Amino acid sequence: MTRGKIVTAKVFVGIICTVLILGTVFMTTILIIFRNGPNVPYELSDKSYRNIPNVGGDCCVYVSENFFYDNNLYIPGGDDIYFNTYGENGDNWIVNGSRYRNGRVKNLKYSFLTGSNQGGQFDSIIITCNPKNIMRLQNQQKHNGYTYGLKVEDYVKDSENDNNTMEYRCEYTINFKRNVNTSKECQLSMIVKISHDKDASAEQFKEVCDELFFSLLDNVVYRNV
Amino acid sequence: MTKIKSGKKGLIVGLTLALIFAVIVSVEIYVFFCVDMGSGNVDTIIRYNYLQKKTTNSMLYLSEDFLDDNNLEIVPIYSSKPDSALDFVNNYLGDVILEYNTHKISTGFNKNVIKTDLYRYELVSSSDNGNIPIRVNVVGAVGTNKKHKYDKEVGNGDKYAVLDTELTKYFTGIGKSYEIKGQVGKVGLIKKYSRLKITVTVDAQNVNDYTQEQIEERVDAVLASALKYVQRYGD
Q: What is the Cβ-side half-sphere exposure of residue B145, based on CA atoms within 13 angstroms?
């Protein structure tokens, strides 16, 4: 072996050792910081409405099933229910993943979609509970001691194909304590969409949406612990 | 020649070190990412029969006679497990969820046994025997809730709090809830207490089939019955 080759070998081994030492230090630091493992969302593969509190835990408030029966809405299930975690990309849907484990995730946002049973007036209702990123309530309103934010829009539903139909959209937002043992909050929001004829006045739909939201307020519950 | 020998020795030492570091990194990756260390918000689902064995003597329980006398059955927990690329099969996981230290209460358990501070399961009326169908949600936990007033007394001396004096909305329907506080041990002069929360509800889909009075009567009867069946590990 020539002197040049020996030097090259030494340098090569030195570089490998340095990389491995730095790698070990880096890995150890990262693993100590993220002691509980990677932020892989757990999934209870039971995607029924009843399972939402089991997955969401104590970080969110929940909507009693009474709400659906009182307002003639269908109970969401399967693909109507979504969960989000807060990673770099906060909009990753996690429930549709194939990984299966039991458990709950901290700071999990849930959403579900429902609508009227046959012949009802609501096109769609999306309810979301978000324990993080609580936004300021816009256009504040008051009802029975509750303060909530309200945003209303009325626009042509499908401007390219069906410009005779309008869509009335109202979005309600309200903050609740996450559970009885904390002052931390979560934000519950409800988006209601109603299709209507262009000639109809949008004013009448505000009352319908308000009633639905007040019913929602009556049906907000904590997880039973 | 000496320099060549020294070079070989350096190479061997370097490779040995590299191997050691590789082993350390592999072990760290395995321990932190592949082994369930029992930390974090990981729940466990167990069979009802194993409940007392798993949670030992720091909890209160409802005896099985409560189920028999009220014609109740435990609700099993299933998951859909992929059987093939297209089909899913129902996979029985157990009946009771054990939650790990979610409320940051010092459990007083031997951590080598289990780090659980709460268990929960659900019971439903097993058949249509003329009674209003009910759902009973049972939560056992260590410690007591300071916000609750345990001002009623069970026959055996345990105290309990009536959390709802009238029908209240719960996730699955309407009903009422009691929370029982019982002593489960003593460390020196300090008494250790645990709590058992029992919530009896009528499902939302059945609420309109009965009057509020009928529902309240049924719920009250089951709650009153539950108070007779509170037991401790070893009873």
A: 25
The CA dihedral of A35, A131, A86, A43, to the nearest 10 degrees, is 80
What tens digit of pLDDT does each residue of A116-160 get?
Answer: 998 778 999 999 999 888 889 999 999 999 999 999 998 887 767
Tokens representing B11 are 């190479």
pLDDT < 50 regions, chain A: 36-43, 88, 90, 92-103
CA distance A137 to chain B (A): 26
Tell me what percent of chain B is helix, strand and coil, each rounded to the nearest 5: 30, 35, 35
Domain spans of chain B?
1-35, 44-232
Residue B28: CB atoms within 10 A of its CB come to: 15
Min Cα separation B71/chain A (Å): 23
Beta strands in B126-221 (DSSP E): 135-142, 152-153, 159-162, 168-169, 173-187, 190-203
Residue B85: how many CB atoms within 10 A of its CB?
A: 5
> Strand, helix or coil at B8?
helix
Distance from CA of B60 to the nearest CA of A (A): 15
Q: Tell me if ipTM is over 0.85.
A: no
Nearest CA in chain B to A42: B42
Containing B64, the helix (H) or strand (E) segment is helix B64-69
> To which residue do tokens 């929001």 refer?
A189
Distance CA A42, CA B40 (A): 11
Contact at CB, B79 and A21, closer than 8 angstroms: no
Chain B residues in contact with A106 (beta carbon < 8 A): 41
